[in-house]
Design goal:
With 134 residues, the protein is of the alpha+beta class. The protein has a single domain, classed as 2,3-Dihydroxybiphenyl 1,2-Dioxygenase, domain 1, CATH 3.10.180. It is 22% helix and 37% strand. The protein has an eight-stranded mixed sheet. It is globular. The mean pLDDT is 97.
Length: 134
Amino acid sequence: MVKKINHIAVIVDDIEKALVPYQKGLGLPSSNIEYVESYNVKVVFLPIGDTQIELVQPLGDKGELVEFLRATGGGLHHIAMEVEDINSAIRQAASSGIHMKDMTPRPGAHNSTVAFAERESFDGVVIELVQPAK
């Protein structure tokens, strides 16, 4: 079902400021900053080998990611697992007892399709299933 780790997401309060140490300090390239309407966030991806770091800036004043940012000041939020068929992956996960936050996939960054599992299913780690755009 899982092909690879697609990305590791970090929640930040200022995406432009957060990019600086990754680009200047580590020399990482980045994608363009993108607005993802379905989550009301700005995101940018920094490729490293076969995976990526995703910086996520929540917008607005409410929502799960805004609350995460307020509670923690930002930091590691989730690990995204790449799958070939998001609907099949959701069904398989749910039928095995994993509590899915999203039983219906939602639009993600770069025209991907995504679904999140509840953190309780993975000992406090948020897992995202992501099917990249074809």
